[in-house]
C-alpha cells in the first residue's frame, strides 16, 4: 500500500495549484516508499466520503467526473468495481457503471455550450507548406454530425465496429467522433500498415464499414491507401468476410477521383454523400462501460491484440491527464505529432484535447519535408505552445544542423512532451536546451495503449525534472516494482513495473479474448497489472523506465511484436527460421545460398506484410540460432552478438549446440 500513500500525497496538491510541490515533496515521496508498509493507517470510508479530498475509490474521480455531462449519474454506489487478482476470479474493471454519457457530446456540444463554438478546434497543415485548413468547434460538430447521420443511414448501430484507415487528415478525428456519437466502436488502423495487417484486423473485428481515402502524400512519396484497402478487402472476402461499404475520401492534393480504382456497389465517395445529410445529429447515450474503441497492438505472439477501451472512465482520465500533464490553458495551441493510428493519437490528438476545448494542430506530412526545419516552422506559423512528440523524432532532428531549429523563433513554446520510448538524457537535453531554449519543461509521459492515458508523468510546474526520468505517478496511479517472484520491492530498486489498482482509463479486455487478457497482463504477477516494462526507482523516488522485458520491441517509436516480424520473414519460401531484434538473424532452408537479392526480398516480405517502418535494418545470416534444449531462442546472446559485445556473452553452456555462437560470430559482417 505504499503506492496508496504516495498518491494521497500527490493528490493533496491538486486543487491548490500544482506549482507549489517542491523538491522536498519529491524527497518525502521517496521516503514514503521505504516506510514500513503495515504502519499505514487509512481513513475510514465514512471520513473519506465527506472529506475535501479523498482516495480515487472514494470520491476523488467522481468529483472530477462532475465536470462532464452525464445523461444519467452513477448514483450513490461505489464508482469503481474491480478485481485485478486472477486468484480471486475473473479480472474485471468497471468505472461509473450504470451512468450514461457520450464522449462526442462532451468533446463538442459541451464545449460549444459553454461558449467556445467559434474557437478553432482543428488546425490542419498539409504535406506541402502553405496547404492548410481549419475548423471551429461549431464547424467540427457539423461535419461530425453529417458523417454520423450517413453512418446511421447505412445501418451502423450502437456496438457495431467501424474500421478507419486514414492518414492525418481532419477527416480522421471527424470519423472517430462520428462513430462515438452514434455509439459505434471505431478501430483505427495506422495508414502505414500493409494490406495484410489491415485484413487481419478487419477479420478480427468484422466492421460494417471501412473508411479510407484514395491516397496521401507524405514527404515526396504518394501512398495509395485505396489500393491497399482494396487488397485487404479482397483478402477478407477470400476468408469469408465481406465489408459492405468502403467510404472513400477524395484527397485531391494526392490523387484525383478519376484515377482511383472503384468497386461499384461497395465504394462510396465521402464527398458525394456527407454534404447531403443534416448538420445536427441526436446523440446515442451509452453506458459508461459501453465500448468506445478497439485498437490493435502488438503482443509477443503473432496475432495483434484488440485492446478495448470503454467510454466513461476513458473520457474522465484522458481529459484530466491532458490538462495536468501539459498544464493546459484555454489559450494554448497544442500539437501532438503522433498519428491517430496509435493510442497517442486517440487519447492526445482527439479525445483528451477536445474534451478540454483545446485548439489542436494536425499535420499530414513528414517532419523532414521539405527539410529538417519543418516542425519548427510549423511551431512558428501556428504559435504552438504545447508540443508533444517522440524521442525517435527528437533524435533524428538532433542529427541535423542546429540552424534548422534556430531559424524559427519558437518563442510561443511553453511545454514540451515526449512519449513512446525512454528518452535518453542527451536527446532530452537537446530538446530542452535547443528546441525549448532551456525555458520549457518536458513532460516525459510513460503510458501504454492498454493504460489509455498517462500513468507516470511530470506535472510540469510542480516538481524538478531529471533528464530521462518520467518522474512520478499521476493522481491515483499506484505503480509498484516487483522482483521475479512478484514481491514488491521498495526504496531504491529495479525490477518489473506493475500497477496495483485500477485507474479510470484502463483497458477492460482484449476483444474476443478475455483469457489472453488475463494471461498476458494479470497472471505473470498475480494481484497486479503487469506492464511488460522494466523500471528502476532512484533514491528520490523518481521512476526510470528501462524498456520492454518481453518480446515486444520499439521501432521508430512504433510498437511491434518481434513475432510479427518473424512470421513475415518465415513466410518467405526460402527461409526456415528467424529471430528478430530488428537486427534480424535469419536461417535459410538447407542448401539455399546467401545472396544480396535474397536479403532484399526478405526485407520486402516484412515491408509488405507489416509496413515499411518495421523493415529490418540488418540481416545477419545464421546457419543456426542459439537455443536452449527446450528450443527457446536465447535472444540475450543474439543481442550481444549484434552489438559486438562478444566478451559479455555470458553462460552459453545451457545451449543445445554452443558451437552456433562461433558460427554466428564468424558471419557477423557477411
Ligand atoms: C503511449 C505508447 C507502450 C510502450 C511502453 C514502454 C514504451 C512509452 C514511454 C515508454 C519510456 C516513456 N514507452 N512511453 N518508455 N518512457 N515515456 O507509446 O503506447 O505504443 O502501447 O507502447 O512504450 O515500453 O510499454 P504503446
Automatic annotation (TrEMBL):
Q: Which PROSITE patterns match?
A: AMP_BINDING
Quickly give the catalysed reaction.
(E)-4-coumarate + ATP + CoA = (E)-4-coumaroyl-CoA + AMP + diphosphate; acetate + ATP + CoA = acetyl-CoA + AMP + diphosphate
Q: Which UniProt keywords apply?
A: ATP-binding, Ligase, Nucleotide-binding
The answer, when asked if ATP-binding is one of the entry's keywords, is: yes
**What's its EC?**
6.2.1.1
Matching CDD domains: ACS
Enumerate the Pfam families for this protein: ACAS_N, AMP-binding, AMP-binding_C
Which family does the record claim for this protein? Belongs to the ATP-dependent AMP-binding enzyme family.
* Annotated protein name in UniProt: Acetyl-coenzyme A synthetase
